[in-house]
Amino acid sequence: MAWFTRRSGNEGSAIVPEHEKKRVAEAQAAVPVGSFIKCAECGAILYNRDFERDLKVCSKCGHHHPLTADERIAYTVDENSFTEHDRDLSSVDPLDFPEYKAKAEKGEKNTGRSDTMVRGTATIGGFPVSLLVADFRFMGGSMGSVFGEKFVRAADYAMANRVACVVFVASGGARMQEGLFGLMQMAKTSGSVAQMAQTGTPYIVVLTHPTTGGAWASFAALGDVIYAEPKAYVAFAGARVASQAKQFKEPPNYQTAEFQQEWGKVDRVVPRKEMTTTLTRSLAFFGGKPSSPIDGGGQ
Ligand SMILES: [Zn+2]
Q1: Residues with CB under 5 A from ligand 1 (ion)
Q2: Residue percentage of the chain with pLDDT more than 90
């Protein structure tokens, strides 16, 4: 059992490299001091009011600071249109994995929720959607049983109600504390995406910082349309693991949203301010019908 415990302090994300974790932590620690905030990237001092108005994007360097799931929802969907589903679903600890419960409790304290994925219904630009938003602060956005279950329920809701499924990804990959149960979520979510494809249900993915490991190797790479936020870290293996493989010389910045766009894995890198408009355009393209906010009933 020794190898179970040797990575003390690991938050459930073996894929995201330490420097990236540090970057996220620093950015999330960029708390306002009075009326000002310091950009985590360039160090510029910004008015907190302006920073909020700019959706937490630095007006000096354009750095997109991480968002909580609630902030993401508030910045993206029509006002008061979001209804959350399955908020109380929580994973069991199938392997009795050391420190799993403590890490989950920490995640719950960070987010006020019992797992990574936030699932609900909303309207975007008047179009009803089935919405999934991952919160990286809960065990690095890792994919456990609840993550997969909420994904499937969101897809089922989308298919049953003939609306699009939109997912915002921020994940370190499969949740190692659940072992094979974590890995199985890759197959479970991918199967659900296949069902959506078979039923002509639009499935739109937005990659945010960071999207890695099992998430990028399954549902996150399977969207009918894949958008990404600028400079989001998008990779299967972290930089350290990839460099150890030494099978090829890595091109510069190859684990970024921009590189993935250049090579066709991402359809478009979209600044946060343009995200709602962009999603609205996609929903209209897929033939959605604008409606009043949906009631959040169903599953
Ligand atoms: Zn900046």
Answers
A1: 39, 41-42, 44, 58, 60-61, 63
A2: 78
